[in-house]
Design goal:
- This protein has 11 helices and 6 strands.
- It is an alpha/beta fold.
- α1 crosses α2, α2 crosses α10 and α5 packs parallel to α10.
Length: 292
């Protein structure tokens, strides 16, 4: 998606969202007056999202080398880099609202998984202060880390349905009830989401059937062939997470504040939602295995 196309889509959203948002802030007493800045909200959001669609590995290089030097025509009232960084936190809530507008529709078959978001190297945990009281030590399949867990739910077309950000020491099972509210039908996950108590609750309250592989100490159970084949296709969410980390760059350890960390994660998810092609099940498999 080009910068112009991205700006048009973001600006259309802001035209509807911003008046309501500003009125809510004034009514809550969080803002007494509103002054017009050099950059409008849609321009700030476009630049933030554009970074996650680029090949740059850090935002400062992107802003100074790409936006400042080559996009002056698109953003004629650019501000200095320190000033833009100061404006970034004001875009967090609008970015979250914009991301929710890009969520896909549940098709009856969904895939759930979590991934770690480290905020510092393990050797620097004792000296780390940016996320003190927020991040925590956790363990993933690749080892111990200090940071957060990002829980993601996608449909069979690779469209994002919902997400939850939790501390690194929070068990995966605790994210299930909230994420189940956005889906119906069959939900395929890994062994970390196994919970005998929740299986019945999800089916009774949310009409969601959780399907996972069995742990080594569990009794073997019969599974329909279609479910077994779909469980094998759960690897598409691993591909999506790989793209989020290596293309959309949702993980790095250079954050200076928790708000900028959240902005980085949300913008990375938005950039993924705008990808023209996403990892998904082929139409032939969908027609053969998905419920009618």
């Amino acid at each position: 998606m080009s910068v112009v196309e991205l700006f048009c889509d973001v600006d259309d959203f802001c035209q509807m969202f911003e008046p309501v948002y500003q009125a809510e802030l004034v009514a809550a007493g969080l803002r007494e007056r509103q002054r017009t800045g050099e950059l409008c909200l849609s321009e700030i959001m476009t630049i933030l999202i554009g970074f996650h669609q680029s090949h740059y590995r850090n935002f400062k290089s992107y802003y100074l080398s790409e936006v400042w030097q080559h996009q002056q025509a698109e953003f004629p009232k650019l501000v200095s880099y320190p000033r833009f960084v100061a404006l970034t936190p004001h875009a967090l809530i609008p970015l979250c609202a914009y991301l929710s507008s890009l969520f896909g529709e549940c098709t009856g078959v969904s895939f759930i998984d979590s991934t770690k978001l480290s905020v510092c190297h393990n050797l620097r945990i004792q000296q780390h202060r940016v996320f003190e009281g927020l991040a925590a030590r956790g363990k993933s399949s690749t080892g111990w880390f200090f940071g957060f867990k990002l829980h993601l739910v996608f449909n069979d077309r690779g469209e994002l349905l919902d997400f939850i950000l939790a501390a690194g020491n929070v068990h995966d099972v605790k994210a299930l009830p909230r994420l189940a509210k956005r889906v119906w039908g069959k939900l395929f996950g890994d062994k970390g989401y196994i919970s005998g108590k929740l299986l019945g609750e999800l089916l009774a309250e949310h009409n969601v059937q959780l399907i996972t592989r069995l742990k080594s100490n569990m009794r073997n159970q019969l599974m329909p062939l279609a479910d077994k084949l779909l469980l094998r296709k759960r690897v598409i969410i691993e591909t999506i997470i790989d793209q989020l980390k290596n293309i959309s760059q949702i993980e790095h350890t250079r954050h200076r504040s928790p708000i900028n960390f959240l902005v980085n994660v949300v913008c990375g998810l938005i950039a993924y939602c705008h990808q023209p092609t996403k990892p998904s099940l082929s139409p032939e498999i969908s027609r053969a295995l998905l419920p009618a």
